[in-house]
Amino acid sequence: MSEKRVSFATGVEASEAVLPSQPTYWSYSSLQEMEACPRRWMLSRAEYPELWGKRGYPPLPVAAALFGDVVHAALEIIVRKLVAAGCMSPRTAEAAQVLRDLGGITAVVEMALHDRLAMLDGNPRLDNDRMKRISVELRDRVPHARSQVQVYLSRTVLPATPWGAGSQSDSDTLARGLGRRPAGPGTHPEIPLVAEALRLIGRVDLLAVTQDRVGITDYKTGVEDPGHLDQLRLYALLWDLDRIANPDRRPATELTAAYPSRDVTISAPDETQLRNLEETMRQRIAAAETELVASVPKALPSKQKCALCQVRQLCDAYWEQAPDALTLSTGTWFDCQGVVGPQNGTRSWWLLSERSGQKTMLLRTGATMPVLPPGRRVRLLNLQLDDPVTRVTSATLTTASEVFVLTD
Ligand code: SF4
Known about the structure:
The protein folds into 3 domains: 58-158, no CATH class; 178-291, Trna Endonuclease, Chain: A, domain 1, CATH 3.40.1350; 322-405, CATH 2.40.50.140. The protein has helices spanning 28-36, 38-45, 63-84, 93-101, 105-118, 128-140, 142-154, 168-176, 226-241, 271-291, 303-307, 316-319, and strands at residues 7-8, 17-18, 186-195, 200-209, 214-219, 254-258, 263-267, 333-345, 348-352, 359-365, 377-385, 394-405. The chain has a 5-stranded mixed sheet with strand order 3-4-5-6-7. Strands 8-9-10-12-11 form a 5-stranded mixed β-barrel. It is 35% helix and 21% strand. The protein is of the alpha+beta class. Iron/sulfur cluster binds next to helix 2, helix 11 and helix 12. Residues 37, 39-40, 299-301, 305-306, 309, 311-312, 315, 317-318 line the site of iron/sulfur cluster (SF4).
């Protein structure tokens, strides 16, 4: 594995990136992200020692994604406890007792939410206001998360695990990938599967092994997407190639994407399909790794991808194509770059064109927004275009907006 670390000047203050080296393992999602845009992959995973001590660029949390994480985490906690207690179904009296011991589904959801919010501590993109809003929004959705967990559980079947009650340490050990061992008959929540030769890894939400069947289930809190089935096929390949979890090379038989409203179950790939998929993955990983050696990570901009990109403030390829505010309609959320000009009122500034120095837009800010730095080049994210009361183009920086100062 290469240890080469390359620095990349993003052009944004306090944001010099130390690019990541080759990952030990690829996963379905990391490979997909690399293929969608190598620059986004690299900048999202780089280190920013001037900004904070954690790996990766600080993400701006999205409430919908956090909600999905909370549902997922709550399900994981409950299923592990049910399996450890030897429950074959979440609908038995034993399962009801397990849930009571946990304090009920709502208590588990609240615990998962607390843990997820704690992970946001120290994120330099989150001020107190933003943190409070996310926290309130997610707490309001606890009843919804509870009912989603209940729905998933109502459809879950847990084949008997031979080691039965009191085996929590076994299943926990498996789930954490410490001291992996064969996954025999029974239910295995959150089991890591590894294809060493491909350097490919995945974590299956629920692997159910019986005498004659091997089922793989992945819980999906979003809308149905054909990509979810591709991900399941990849898990079938990992199961096929994992010599520790599956030493007898038992084939997977069915793959299920469990959505809030229904399960979508497909047959697992046959031997020929598995070998084709293996070769495809080998080629995709080789292609992804050629991108890692570039000192300037390749950008693949597109309107759809860049609009949701968490590191677009660091990407000059995006700003070269950013739409002109004059072409947008009132109320549109947009990003723009310019030079902060003279102050116009207590909470308003002119934005000047970088090329001509002419006034291009009046920027209004809320009382809690920081003062804009006069004379500095800035990138502004998530502005809202105002109603044109005069012929002057104006936009408002709201609590959803962010200001990034460029190095000159
Ligand atoms: S802004 Fe677009 S081109 Fe730039 S890193 Fe993000 S997705 Fe890639």
